[in-house]
Amino acid sequence: MSGLTAADPDQSDRLEFLFLDSWVSNRAEGSGSAVAIAGLAAGLRSLGHRVEVLRPRRVYRSLDATRLLYNLTLRNRLADLERAYDVVVGFDYDGWALHGEAGALYAVALKGVAADERRFETGWYRLKFTLWSALEGRNARSADRVFVTSEYSRKQAVAAYALCTDRVRLAPEGTDPAVAAGDGSGGPEAPTVLSVARQYRRKDTASLIRAVPGLLAAVPRVRVRIVGDGPELRRIRRLVGSLGLEDAVSLLGALQSVDALRREYERASVFCLPSLQEGFGIVFLEAMSHGLPIVAAAAGAVPEVAPHGETSLLVPPGDCEALTRALTRILTEPGLAGRLGRAGRERAARYDWTSAARAFVHGIRS
Question: Residue 11 falls within a domain, yes or no?
Answer without folding.
Answer: no
